């Protein structure tokens, strides 16, 4: 039996869109992931002028906030594997946003630090992301903003 209600749509766009969403049936997890997806897409658009991805932006933010550090320390700040940190730093170095230097305390170790251009780009990204956050969350009331902040911190920790 081939009932129209059980057959998948043949139009690829219809398959991706899914059934019309009834807000009463949307789970908390679905809402959370939908918001996260919107934030991720918005963040990528915000970062386009500097040709960096969100991982690069996070690493640059850590380095501009904390200064020069070893790759292992940067990996800890970013909560990623050291190998991934090397790839992120390579990408930032190719763009002239960070530079590697010998660690004066241990000649075998290397420090990574933002360049002057990296510091300038990091500040511009902070400003753009702040404006992005204001657009995204700005329509919330102060109470809703405070509640959401409290809830997200609880979930993060």
From TrEMBL:
Domain HTH marR-type: 25-157
Pfam family, one: MarR
SUPFAM superfamilies documented for this protein: Winged helix' DNA-binding domain
InterPro entries in UniProt: HTH_MarR-typ (IPR000835), MarR/SlyA-like (IPR039422), WH-like_DNA-bd_sf (IPR036388), WH_DNA-bd_sf (IPR036390)
UniProt region (Disordered), positions on chain: 1-25
Protein name: Winged helix-turn-helix transcriptional regulator
